[in-house]
Predict the 3D structure of the following.
Amino acid sequence: MLRSIATVGGWTMASRVLGFVRDILIARVLGAGLEADAFFVAFRFPNLFRRLFAEGAFNAAFVPLYARTLTERGPVLAARFAEETLALLLTVLLAVTFLAELAMPWLMAAIAPGFVGDEVKYGLAVQFTRITFPYLLLMALAALYSGVLNAHRRYAHAAAAPILLNLAMIAAMAVAAPLWGEAGLALSWAVTLAGIGQFLWMHSAAAQSEAALRLPARPVLTPEIRRLLKLMVPGVIGSGAMQINLLIGTMIASLAPGAVSYLYYADRIYQLPLGVIGSAIGVVLLPEITRRLRSGQEGAAGESLNRAIELGLLITLPAAVALIAIPEEIIGALFERGAFGREATEATAAALAGFALGLPAFVLIKALAPAFYAREDTATPFRYAIAAMVANTVLSLGFFPLLGFVGIAIATSLASWLNLALLWARLGRIGFLTVDARLRRRGPRILLVSLAMGAALVAAAAGLEEASAGPPFARASALGLLVAGGGAFYFALALAVGAIERSALRALVRRGARAP
């Protein structure tokens, strides 16, 4: 399981690094102004539906059903189920895309009400979203192939696919935008073209493996498909609570100029640890727990969940502390150039610290949710997600007049902690999540080491204050020193106090060296 998480996390890390290059270019060209706000709303809208229907609710419902069919009835019937799902998905999403394109002016008024009073920004947002919306259809189809490949323990192609999106958007900023003269338009077309590339990439990967699929003549509502739909309906909310919370935040932030952009750039930073470890854990843990439960290995499934929580804490607690300790140094080094000035750096840094408060919760939710989905229970996460969304909306509306857009980030974090607490308590009541001795021993040590690292980062940042306020190269060098020094300090102290055991680390390295 750890090797598979490392595979997904490694490809995700490569994608996130390219994502930073992409966002640096976007910040340099668009900054945090009118056109940037319009594009980020356009990009979030199809991205929201992709994560809800394609990657979130769909995978939460599809992967356990496909894995069960594969285990109990064999690969031929499993492939037939996947093909029937493919036909339904294509039919429904073609209709959704067509209707959304027609209704985009009204949809935009709902998701970004603050844009309505600005004719230029509103018009750009509608235009950009119409161009990017087909990305939903393409990524939903790619997600089906991803789910099939993951069930066969083939993770690399799906984890690498987002790299194509980042490469397309980098090309749009570096080549198309200067020639075209309209950066937002170039980025919008890059999103859709990247969706075509990602779909073809996943289709090719499936065609060359045991997961090859053919498209049936028409969709059929078989009992298996009905079961899939029944699981997906609550799963849309349950698996996508964080994305819906971000959409709610975008709606409220649209009332303040530049706020959508500040939240977007902050979101991109904390998405690095969330994507590298949180998403990797969720992708690998769902088929892993499903297989073990189907084989009657309840104890082994619980052990996998404990190790996933431990790994999540080991990576995300120090990441969260670092993002809270030195947010201005991070944002300044990555984005402060061109159209992205000092005021934007300070505003984005404040939003980043607000999001960082919830980073451990964001990741652990991805670790706990598969324990429900593996049992084909999407209703329980659905109920808890509804509670979290209500809390997020109330808190965002309450904090916004007092704290501005930073209150939206804090509200999103607090709502995620509520969601995590509800999931954790439920798994404990049904006896599936019992914190073992190893996690009880290491968890508090990881927290203490993370806090010590945060204090060291604050002191080091004060010593590098002049460099952090200097030209781009000096800022990047200062950030590099802080990251390298903080990481070395954290892992050295973690080894010293037993938050990481040397024997386990050596064993993991040996297994990695023997891996093909």
